[in-house]
Write a structure and sequence with these properties.
It is a single chain. By secondary structure, the chain is mostly helical. It has a domain of about 120 residues. It contains 26 helices and no strands. The chain is globular and about 105 Å long. About 30% of the residues are buried.
Length: about 525
């Protein structure tokens, strides 16, 4: 990780100059090709959205929990590198629909990957270590080893403690050797072999193995992006700056073809462009910062924001350097009034550019402050997901209307006795409603544990609710919970709670009358809790 201004500045000004002097035309052609890909980025993202819509339709039509889990897993991996909040949603659906030990295991391994992207390394390790590898089937064991490699590779790269890094490296080596011992034929096995070669310092062999995987015809676009980035990183280790830049360009192209937003290739490429391409570098960094914010990839935000400031500072340094040369020129050409006048005008223009650059830096700082505020206000995102969860759950419960049709079919096929026997059994629909409201109460109180206490502070003492450890809400508090997450219309609240609008209206009036604040402000206060 780049940790100082000097290091980043040297990446901008010096290595790229060496590379571009070797094959400037070749790199310029590749950069022009990348610019075209970036111009067409909306087309690739529209294709991604269309594919995601098709997959969502398949999820809606899935007839069993096992098939729903498969569709949810497909959607999760689609969004894993595009939009982290969306991938969280489909992880929740995977947890909901998993119906076999293999699906439960895969769901846990997927959750480990999400924990790493969220920066929850300790939780990822704890979740991974909760699995007993000796109880896994062969297919599950392959997935276990793949997740282990991803986990300890991430920990090794992110750790700043030398002893921990050594431990993580040893663990990663052990899992890589275990993977290779079981499989050297599949894509995953050959990728593990390439990773081991790189980790043990056999860089030429690692490049050969990675390139073979990259050029095979069945490699997916996202896999190509990851492989190209690995190849670029190895060339960087070798000091081959020209190859480093070319493979970063390949990785960036594949990232945008796949509609990825968690990429590093474009970010690193921007830092390598020399000072006569700062406009292009600034464009790359702006795209990178926009994408990591849109995808909620928080671990990428500090680097992207820092790089944007550094590139602006590089522009400032370039301008200051020119000004210094102007001063030297003025001393040597004092008798040439016309040239001095020209240089003074030129100096004035450069100062104006400096002022504009300072304004850009201030704007970048404001953007970063807003980004931090948005991250600290993550509870607003939770509200959206609670509402979606309720809509999906109520829609699911309404499908029990099919029960009536099943009764008619039963009557036609098996007669009155079978219908009577079925009707005497408990109604699954009402049992599911009870279960739904129980889950809603537990989920809501999990997100807002002090909700009852805050509501009581808005009410007169004689109208307050008991504050207990029970994870259930009375009807009045469910109405207020609905208002808290943005459902304000009595009709919609009544539909959600399966009661009449008149009942909802009566409860709302009662609660407003019991408020300490003005009645018309009570529900707005609840919505802001």
């Amino acid at each position: 990780m780049i940790t100082s201004f000097r290091t980043l500045l040297s990446m901008i000004l010096f290595p790229a100059a060496i590379a571009l002097s070797c094959s400037k035309d070749e790199i310029e052609v590749a950069l022009d090709r990348l610019d075209k890909v970036l111009d067409d980025k909306d087309i690739y993202r529209e294709e991604f959205d269309a594919n995601a819509d098709q997959m969502r339709k398949k999820l809606e039509k899935a007839g069993t929990d096992s098939l729903r889990w498969n569709r949810a897993e497909d959607l999760f991996w689609m969004y894993f590198h595009n939009q982290l909040d969306s991938s969280d949603r489909y992880l929740s659906l995977m947890e909901r629909y998993c119906s076999s030990p293999a699906q439960k295991f895969e769901t846990k391994m997927v959750a480990v990957r999400v924990d790493l992207l969220r920066g929850n390394n300790d939780l990822a390790v704890k979740r991974f270590k909760s699995v007993n590898p000796y109880s896994l089937s062969k297919e599950m064991h392959d997935s276990y080893l793949s997740s282990a490699r991803a986990l300890y590779n991430h920990l090794w790269k992110m750790s700043e403690d030398s002893l921990l890094r050594e431990d993580y490296q040893d663990t990663l080596l052990a899992y890589l050797n275990a993977s290779i011992a079981l499989d050297t034929v599949t894509f995953s096995g050959r990728r593990a072999k390439a990773q081991l070669a790189r980790l043990t310092g056999d860089l030429d062999n690692a490049i050969k193995l990675y390139e073979h995987l990259y050029f095979q015809t069945d490699a997916k676009v996202h896999a190509k992006a990851a492989l190209a980035y690995n190849i670029a990183s190895i060339y960087n280790q070798k000091g081959s700056v020209n190859d480093y830049i070319m493979w970063l360009i390949n990785a960036a192209e594949a990232d945008f073809h796949a509609a990825n937003r968690d990429y590093l290739a474009l970010y690193e490429l921007a830092l390598l462009l020399e000072d006569n391409q700062l406009d292009r570098a600034e464009r790359f960094i702006n795209l990178n910062l926009t994408d990591v914010l849109a995808g909620d990839f928080r671990l990428r935000i500090p680097n992207s924001g820092k790089a944007q400031i550094i590139i602006s500072n590089a522009s400032l340094l370039r301008s200051k350097s020119r000004i210094r040369w102007l001063v030297v020129g003025l001393g040597g050409l004092s008798l040439m009034c016309m040239i001095i006048g020209f240089l003074l005008v030129y100096s004035f223009r450069q100062r104006r550019k400096l002022a504009r650059s300072r304004e850009i830096i201030l704007q970048v700082n404001e953007k970063l402050k807003k980004a931090n505020a948005e991250l600290n206000d993550a509870n607003l995102i939770k509200d959206s997901y609670v509402f979606r969860y309720m809509e999906l759950s109520v829609k699911y419960l309404d499908t029990y209307d099919q029960y009536r049709h099943d009764i008619l079919k039963l009557f036609k096929s098996d007669g009155v006795d079978a219908v009577v026997k079925t009707l005497r059994s408990p109604s699954k629909m009402y049992m599911e409603y009870d279960n739904f409201y129980r889950i809603f109460d537990e989920t809501f109180l999990g997100l807002y544990p002090d909700f009852v206490h805050k509501v009581n502070l808005l009410l007169r003492e004689d109208s307050r609710f008991p504050e207990t450890s029970a994870k259930s809400l009375p009807t009045e508090l469910r109405i207020l919970a609905a208002i808290r997450i943005g459902i304000t219309q009595s009709g919609k609240i009544a539909t959600f709670l399966k009661c009449s609008p008149a009942t909802v209206y009566t409860y709302r009036t009662k609660l407003r009358n019991a408020a300490l604040c003005p009645k018309e402000d009570f529900e707005a206060s609840v919505a802001g809790l």
